[in-house]
Design brief:
Largest sheet: 7 strands, antiparallel
Number of strands: 26
Helix content: 10-25%
Strand content: 35-45%
Structural class: alpha+beta
Shape: elongated
Length: 582
């Protein structure tokens, strides 16, 4: 849940609905009720006329309540116009002509003599008296009757004038009877009363605005007009240190006077979410350190204060004032990022962290084959990074400093800058140099062998194993008596083992061929250079100055009353240091 604190010293009324305050809403409700009363109860004619009258009254009332000209309310503008129209004019002659011997009249309190309503009322009364005197003189000359209110509003009792003649009395009774029958006296009375009511309702907001208007030379806010205490020049809060480390901001504040401090950190997707809130009381010259979170794409820090004399203010840091997010750059040899960046009095300091690779790809023009054929190609070979060295150069405006790079670690730097309030643009350049060791593959050497024929004589030996077998067959033998007799005949044979050797002559043809030999090569040593650039900005505050609050003005001593007696009056003159004139 979002919480907003609106301190009372900002002189701003709470807006209840849209841009309207609670008194304006109440006044609008009252004007709407009066407009409805005019429409519903005014016997002016048909409904269209009453609606038009109610609408005009409502629009006029709403314009008086919520309308503004040049940021000022309409009653205040009308009061200025009345004061200009009916007030005194400024004398354009030399000041010497205004010198007079008698003392000046006592200054009237504000709101009595220079009130435009009083001046307007006096002028209207003077003109009314003058017109009444002229009308009376004209009536005396022409013989007309003097003005009487009964003639305007009508006589309810129907009394008779003792001095009037009978004919005039009858004529008056006839006229009164016709008015009662036609109702013209009632309509005239109602219209006059309605006009007076409109004048009073229109004058009420104007009188209220004049009562609330401040004195000459005062200050006027948007909603509440009053005379605040005079502003004491000078700053109450100074920033003496600002360091951003990752997603945190460390701010060192110093109070120039006794004050109540409230620290707020805003973040989120739109930068409006309250992420941290801290309250503290500081005395003059006291330091206060705050570790605040930085969240979202556009975080901001707000430091609001209220001092001992009732004055308040705030200081905010956002955008280019905060070095957030911290920059980073990635290269082939190393990845460089700003781990911390901050400002202290007269210097910008920070830390650059680097992470270097252990192996990278290196393009090498390599001879792969030599001898019978020569093949050379460009190959991307993994190279071992032996060592990385370099410098980090930090510059801001016309000032520059260089520090050795700590490869694979954090490199700290400090750059002196000019004092004073402002934004310092910081440029960081990391110049890297790496020693590489490239392991080359073996070299293949080719040799050509032509075709040749070779006649070879070799002795071939064949071993014949021993072999034996028994064969049995049936034989049919015819007998003398014509019969047949079967006899079984068995025969066996055996061959012993032997080895037979012979000399064999044959021809071998060797075809043309290429023979290869592999030769190991020594590794290749190279160097690689690289430059990475980073940029950021940080806000710097002015030098600390203590606030000297002036002593309050003493209250005027009330004047002693003048004694009434002569003796006491003589003593009072002596106390005042005056000489008794009698």
């Amino acid at each position: 849940m979002r919480a907003h604190e609106v301190p009372t010293h900002v002189q701003a009324e709470d807006r209840v609905l849209l841009w309207l305050t609670f008194p304006q809403i109440v006044a609008m409700v009252a004007v709407s009720a009066l407009a409805y009363g005019i429409y519903h109860y005014a016997p002016v004619g048909p409904s269209g006329v009453r609606i038009a009258a109610a609408a005009l009254f409502a629009l006029g009332g709403l314009a008086v309540i919520a309308g503004r000209i040049g940021g000022r309310r309409l009653p205040l503008v009308a009061a200025d116009l009345l004061r200009y129209g009916v007030g005194a004019r400024r004398y354009a002659g030399p000041p010497a002509e205004l010198v007079r011997g008698e003392p000046h009249a006592a200054v009237q309190p504000s709101g009595s003599e220079d009130d435009p309503l009083r001046l307007l009322a006096r002028r209207v009364l003077r003109r009314t008296r003058r017109a009444s005197q002229q009308r009376k003189e004209g009536e005396r000359r022409t013989g007309r009757l003097p003005f009487r209110p009964q003639r305007l509003f009508g006589r309810r009792g129907g009394g008779e004038e003792p001095d009037a003649p009978p004919a005039a009395r009858e004529d008056r009774e006839q006229r009164l009877g016709s008015r009662r029958r036609g109702g013209r006296g009632f309509w005239k009375s109602f219209l006059i009363a309605a006009a007076l009511a409109l004048v009073v309702l229109s004058a009420l907001p104007l009188a209220a605005a004049l009562a609330q208007e401040p004195e000459e030379g005062g200050w006027t806010s948007d909603e509440i007009e009053f005379q605040p205490p005079p502003v004491v020049p000078g700053r109450r809060l100074f920033v003496e240190g600002l360091t951003v480390n990752g997603g945190r901001a460390e701010v060192v504040l110093r109070a120039a006077t006794d004050l109540r401090l409230t620290v707020r950190a805003y973040g989120g997707p739109e930068g409006r979410s309250l992420r941290a809130w801290v309250a503290a009381s500081l005395t003059q010259g006291q330091h206060s350190t705050h570790d605040l979170p930085l969240h979202g794409p556009s975080p901001s820090l707000v430091f609001s204060w209220r001092d001992g004399i009732g004055q308040a203010g705030a200081l905010s840091l956002e955008g280019e004032q905060l070095p957030y997010p911290l920059p980073a750059a990635a290269g082939e040899l190393c990845t460089v990022r700003v781990a911390s960046l901050g400002w202290t009095q007269g210097a910008v300091a920070g830390t650059v962290a680097s992470t270097c690779a252990s192996a990278i790809g290196e393009s090498v023009s390599l001879q792969a084959v030599s001898g019978h054929a020569d093949i050379t190609t460009t190959a991307l070979i993994a190279a071992e990074v032996l060592a990385v060295s370099g410098t980090v150069t930090v510059s801001s405006a016309t000032r520059e400093t260089s520090v050795p790079l700590v490869a694979g670690g954090e490199t700290r730097f400090r750059l002196p800058v000019a004092t004073g309030e402002g934004i310092h643009a910081v440029a960081i350049a990391a110049e890297l140099e790496a020693s590489l060791r490239i392991a080359l593959p073996p070299l293949v050497e080719l040799s050509h062998v032509p075709e040749r024929t070779e006649r070879l004589t070799e002795t071939a030996s064949v071993h014949i194993p021993a072999f034996g077998d028994v064969v049995t067959e049936s034989v049919t033998i015819p007998m003398e008596d014509g019969t047949f007799t079967e006899q079984s005949v068995t025969a066996s044979c055996y061959v012993s083992a032997s080895t037979v050797s012979r000399d064999v002559v044959f021809t071998v043809v060797h075809e043309e061929r290429v023979e290869a030999a592999v030769t190991e090569r020594a590794p290749l040593a190279r160097t690689r250079t690289e430059t990475l650039a980073l940029a950021s900005s940080v806000w710097a505050d002015g030098s600390y100055r203590g606030l000297s609050v002036p002593d309050p003005e003493p209250e005027p001593t009330p004047a002693a009353p003048v004694p009434a007696g002569a003796g006491e009056l003589r003593e009072w003159f002596a106390e005042q240091g005056w000489e008794w004139p009698w």
